[in-house]
Specification:
alpha/beta; TIM Barrel; eight-stranded parallel barrel; 10 helices; globular; binds zinc ion; endonuclease; nuclease; Xyl_isomerase-like_TIM-brl; Endonuclease 4
């Protein structure tokens, strides 16, 4: 498994510094969380200060691959409001531009939310979501970057909260999938997610099977057996504290070696 972590755990640090830490601690990937100062639009505006060529150089010297988690806070690709959908599309496109500047491999994003329980409204939201993502997928293909939509926790308002809905969207868009194994653990049969085609990579975190708690790997009820971990080619530990990232890394490496 190639293993990395989300920059959420070192939020607000400079990307160069995070790459140094990743190299020191034997990680092969980082996933940049594109929120706050790392909003793609802001990064494009502050190109000089960010120094994209320098980041690319460090990542390549250290043999660290860069993935991006596109912005998701307060946008909604499935919104009933056309203006919000357009803004969501723009922001995903901008994340793809940043991925291109950083030689990034993949951009993950969320399918969006729907606030009404009627099936016809959910179907409409799903179609809007697909419509929002299709031009993003075309742009991603032009750039040679994988656009990847993530499965969400099992709450009715989230689109992509079960394998069939996530697959329906990814299939219609023609994009790949990011499996958040903690989110999958809130669904009754998490392993159904593993049967989906076009899985790009995994987010690794744990919970009690009910709430999306983002606990350390091994501290909840999600399956982190050797059998599961062997199926993960690319894994991103997604926690908000770097000490816990290291504990999770050690748990995963020990499992993969000893199997217990
Ligand atoms: Zn996510």
């Amino acid at each position: 498994m190639k293993l990395g972590f989300s920059t959420l755990s070192l939020f607000m640090n400079k990307i160069q510094d995070i790459l140094e830490i990743a190299y020191r601690d034997n990680f092969n990937i980082i996933e940049i969380l594109c929120e706050g100062p790392y909003m793609p639009r802001l990064m494009l505006k502050n190109k000089e200060e960010i120094n994209f060529p320098k980041i690319r150089q460090i990542a390549s010297d250290y043999d660290i691959e860069i993935f991006l988690h596109g912005p998701t806070v307060d946008i909604n690709p499935a919104s009933m409001n056309q203006g919000i959908r357009e803004e969501s599309r723009k922001q995903i496109m901008e994340a793809l531009e940043i991925a291109d500047l950083l030689n990034g491999k993949a951009v993950t994003t969320h399918p969006g939310v729907v606030h009404r329980r009627e099936k016809r409204i959910r179907d409409l939201a799903t179609n809007f979501c697909i419509e929002t993502f299709i031009p993003c997928q075309e742009f991603a293909e032009d750039l040679g970057i994988a656009l990847s939509i993530e499965n969400m926790p099992k709450r009715f308002s989230y689109l992509g909260n079960c394998p069939s809905e996530l697959n329906k969207i990814a299939n219609a868009v023609g994009c790949g999938i990011t499996i958040d194994w903690g989110h999958a653990n809130t669904y009754e049969n998490p392993e159904e997610y593993l049967k989906l085609p076009n899985i790009n990579y995994f987010h690794l975190n744990d919970n009690n099977g009910i709430k999306d708690q983002h606990l350390n790997v091994g501290d909840g009820t999600a399956d982190f057996s050797k059998d599961f971990l062997k199926k993960v080619d690319y894994g991103i530990i997604e926690l908000n504290n770097y000490e816990n990232v290291l504990l999770s890394r050690d748990f995963i490496n020990k499992k993969l070696i000893d199997g217990y």
